[in-house]
């Protein structure tokens, strides 16, 4: 055999060996795109779940996340597998606890498979940035610092305080020290004494939980004490803490967290989007020595990434965040709290339409920890679970300060002189309360100057060109604006219908209410809260600060005011209009109305003086208001639960909405008709529709709904599951999505 021949064979052999499958691993990766399952790639090593990889997808390269081995995938042909281009992480960025939730969410909400995985990551990590913390100034105790008896420092109170702060933690970052009033100069003095060292570096390990308090907790009243005792338990213990407005739920949370930290575990606190103001955070920071990390949409991408990583590395004992913070990795989690659990902002209303409360419950169950859902006005779902014993039902019926709940009275608008929808009676009462040196809060759930621009001669109303909605008139910039799509135009001067020039703003929004009240009461400061004036966190905070700084003043705003804020000086709450909740066809309109009314009324009389609430209504005798006027949200909710039971609506049945959007109404409708036929022949679900959405056209697209109902959750899911296989999400100029457990029919 000639050597030449042999050498020709060897490269071929080599090539063959490199193709041998035994050295290759099949890796399941959640990849962005319209996939209902992870895709499979090959790689020369096994990879743990939760690792980011760069992979080819069509002609592009994208970042995906490895998922659990057990995650099912469709059939694959191994010869078609593409290789991972680059592995971005040495260690998983998402721990198993979060991967399990993400996997469940993908299936349950029937959205693109990868979306829950990406939702769990901060934006910069989604884009492939390194999962590392930036260098930071750290204060670390030296052995001498650890050993010193701080009594020896008593000549300098500040030095002693910093050492007392640092000793239980051993190490802390400079920003954390600053939050507690310690500055770098002070730290340098102690460094010179050899008690601590100051370094600039990036720490990636956990920090010891000190469980020390930096203020003395309030003494709990009996109800609070009982609630606290019952809500902590071994393993998964869900509780509903139903406490009237001002009953001191926050104090119960704070003390429950203190217990959690003592057990060397960390706590997760979820609050509604607008509830997470610096005031809230301050209240927590005042109480605890341990570091607290905050996660909300107002942070820059970098801040969010850094805070998220600090939480994930165990550098914070408490994580406070809004909706998506429910997916933050937290080592040794010991407690979850959801404040204002009824709040709508916990449900995401686009793309992955998840409910953070439901995910939190699942997380608590998986991680075997107690979870507390707190509210003065619990959602019907949570109430139902508390009544039937699935959750512990803890009640606080008294205000913590001992102050009685406010007097509530209706104003019969049919018998009142009124201007801009403000009754004579309410105006008189406003003046009385201001004269007594108090503040008044007026609730009007319509921002802008007037809800419509209207022809006095023929009744024509200016509509949005792209939506099935009236334009709202805004005076400060003289524009008519669509609150659904943002379309705007200067107010039309001549009626396109009858050519009259008598066009005017009709109705009252917050802007007009403020203008009118300023005319009636020129010397009284007006503090407005609506998304025009307080849309950013900073603006909102500025308005809140004004309420604290001012004496007699009028606070006027939309439902932004209903989110658990404590206005010490408000003694009168006036509800400008509430009736719209009675007539809305939306699923939860009545429930929301009751919650809003109770929450807004609950802002009255939280200080030293008993409060008063005046509700303007054209339907004072409507029985739905009766329990609410007596602070009896519980009876109100029981009544609604009975109604839901009769109609087999949640929590007594399960619901999904399929919505199709298209520039051509008939296409959206016919797509849903096809789906309805398919679903009906299954025989396991009830189907209503297609019908136009409550907002039947938005931004140029017609919106149709199919309401799918079932008495069994599993049947609903089984019925819906195959839809995406039969009907592409976007085709023939129709796009559609499923909303499981919908919050509204919009
Ligand atoms: N045990 C207590 N003793 C005295 N004051 C208390 C006690 N607990 C709470 N408070 C005070 O009562 C007030 C209301 O408490 P908090 O804001 O926690 O109520 P809440 O139940 O969260 O109300 P809301 O649902 O209306 O937001 C606060 O000023 C708080 O400091
Ligand atoms: Zn519009």
Could you describe the 3D structure shown?
By secondary structure, the chain is an alpha/beta fold. The protein has six domains: 21-126, GIY-YIG endonuclease (3-Layer(aba) Sandwich), CATH 3.40.1440.60; 136-201; 222-396, 3-Layer(aba) Sandwich (Rossmann fold), CATH 3.40.50; 407-446 and 510-643, Rossmann fold (3-Layer(aba) Sandwich), CATH 3.40.50.300; 451-506, no CATH class; 654-740, Alpha-Beta Plaits, CATH 3.30.70.600. The strands form eight sheets. Strands 12-13-11-14-15-10-16 form a seven-stranded parallel sheet, with helices on both faces. Strands 5-2-1-4-3-6 form a six-stranded mixed sheet. Strands 17-29-28-20-27-26 form a six-stranded parallel sheet, with helices on both faces. Helix 2 (96-109) crosses helix 13 (356-366), helix 9 (222-231) packs across helix 10 and helix 19 (589-601) runs antiparallel to helix 21 (633-646). It binds adenosine-5'-triphosphate (ATP) and zinc ion (ZN). Adenosine-5'-triphosphate (ATP) binds at residues 218-221, 224, 243, 245-251, 376, 400-401, 564, 566, 602. Zinc ion (ZN) is lined by residues 464, 466-467, 469, 482, 484-485, 487.
